[in-house]
Amino acid sequence: MPVALIVLAAGMGTRMNSEVPKVLHPLGGVPMLAHALAAGRALDPDRVVVVAGHGAAAVDRAVRRLDPDAAVAVQEPQLGTAHAVLAAAPALAGFAGDAVVLYGDTPFLTDATLARLTEARGRFDVVVLGFETPDPGRYGRLLASGDDLLGIVEAKDAGPEELAIELCNSGVMASDCATLLRLCAAVGNANAAGEYYLTDIVALARAEGLRAGVVRCDMAETLGINTRAELAAAEAAFQARRRAEMLETGVTMTDPATVHFALDTVVGRDAVIGPHVVFGPGVTVESGAEIRAFCHLEGCHVSRGATVGPFARLRPGAELAEDAHVGNFVEIKNALIGADAKVGHLTYIGDAAVGEAANIGAGTVTCNYDGVSKHRTTIGARAFVGSGTMLVAPVQVGAGAMTAAGSTVTADVPAEALAVARARQVVKPGFAARLMARLRAAKAGGAG
Ligand code: UD1
Ligand code: CA
After folding, report:
1. pLDDT, position 53
2. In this structure, are 188 and 245 located in the same domain?
């Protein structure tokens, strides 16, 4: 059965007290919305529609980046969750199949739960994901008899007996897409909030003789984020889960509580991660690589056997081949570090390729930016770049070539050649002693 995903993300998120749309606040290094999209992607949907409203332009930009195949529908004004689903209708034109509704601010749904939800479509025309809690607060209450769902009552509209119900609405729903849109169009707004409630489709479905049912999940999966405190708690929960998963899959961490992962971090078996390592989005670390303490990695790939840090920074486009070594206070950006190459200390390598087994001396800088454009540096296999070399790009250092320490290299160095690009040293015997004596005498004279 083809599936369309509708992700509701138009709400204001007033309680975040922010200029940024709620669903773009970061969780696990990526916008919160990316988590719902990733969960939904597990259903292999044919169409994905994100319904944006508040901050729609920013949400639209983020969605293009996160999931270029997703459509963004704008709901303006925001008149409730049923109204939001209807805003997705134009983007669903011509689609036949099931629709699954998710919320952009509910990041923890698991693939397994979504699979159970869609499986239940075999038994029910409308399936709602519910959870139980002794403290149901503002959640909508599910009026259920076993797995049969009779209706949903919003807390604002509920009487005392309904408020006592502990089975709550997560907001996640699945139904035939055409049926969902037809039922949403029939929803009215005569309720306490004056909104078009998606939850009302359950009663409407039953009135037509359709079957509605509930699938239960753990409350932790349906945790919605409404405040910065909840965002911080969600981040802690996310990190705790990722650390546990990493340990489970064979990653060694000496102090897991201090390691921070992103949603898409991939770390291979027998990799070793030291304390205080931060993974931004887009990082893969292969088996047996080692990331030592206090490193920051983002958009990079570390191959088998490579070592990084302590105190190294790998920025987007950094690619470390097998057994490469990047040491302390080194920054790598958009650069390939070849197999067995060593970039040991205090170095910036940007927009570059470093050949196999090359050795980059301490304090080397690829001067890649002229104030307007970026330029490339190419360093050949087994080249030896002396400490403190400034490589003014575009420039090439050939295979097996050397640069003298302290050189400012502005022209290509052929293979096997040595480039010396610094002033020749002048030695003046006794000069230092005479100079010191003069300076001391001048100071003493001035003080008296
Ligand atoms: C909703 C449910 C409630 C459920 C709860 C779970 C309804 C009427 N109520 O309540 O039963 O227990 O979620 O968290 O559905 N949104 C739009 N456009 C709108 C309104 C909302 O896109 O016009 C989006 C929001 O951005 C959010 C989601 O829909 O992602 C839920 O909206 P919210 O206002 O938070 O609904 P709740 O009152 O929490
Ligand atoms: Ca909410």
Report:
1. 96
2. no
Q: Are 299 and 279 in contact (CB under 8 A)?
A: no
pLDDT in tens, 17-64: 999 999 999 999 999 999 999 999 999 999 999 999 999 999 999 999
Q: Which atom of ligand 1 is least distant from the CA of 154?
A: 11
Rg value, the chain, Cα: 30
Share of the chain above pLDDT 90, in %: 98
Nearest CA to ligand 1 atom 11: 140
* Mutational pocket test of ligand 1: of 79, 81, 168, the residue with most ligand atoms within 8 Å of the beta carbon: 81
* Whether 245 and 218 share a structural domain: no
Q: Quick one: 159 and 79 in the same domain? A: yes
For residue 235, being part of any structural domain is answered with no
Ligand nearest to the CA of 142: 1
pLDDT by residue (tens digit) across 112-130?
999 999 999 999 999 999 9
Domain, as residue range, for 293: 241-419
Neighbours of 108 (CB within 10 A): 22
Ligand (nearest to CA of 81): 1
CA of 303 to the centre of ligand 1 (A): 44
pLDDT digits (tens, 9 = 90+) for 341-373: 999 999 999 999 999 999 999 999 999 999 999
C-alpha angle with apex 194: 49 to 222, nearest 5 degrees?
A: 45
Residues 169 and 251 in one domain: no
Note whether 217 and 98 are same-domain residues.
yes
CATH number, domain containing residue 377 = 2.160.10.10
Q: Check pLDDT > 60 for residue 448.
A: no
DSSP 10-53: ----GGG--SS-GGGSEETTEEHHHHHHHHHHTT--SEEEEEEB
Domain boundary among 193, 222, 251: 222
Atom of ligand 1 nearest to the CA of 83: 23
- What is each CA distance from 242 to 246, 265, 278, 285, in whole angstroms? 6, 9, 13, 15
Could you tell me if 194 and 248 lie in one domain?
A: no
Q: Which residues are catalytic?
A: 345
Q: Give me ligand 2 centre to Cα 104, in Å.
A: 10
- Work out how many domains the chain is built from and give that number: 2
Mean pLDDT within 371-389: 98
Q: Look up the pTM and report it.
A: 0.90
252 in the same domain as 157: no
- Other CB atoms within a 10 A radius of the CB of residue 252 amount to 15
Residue 186 and residue 288 in one domain? no
Residue 10 Cβ inside 6 Å of ligand 1? The answer reads yes
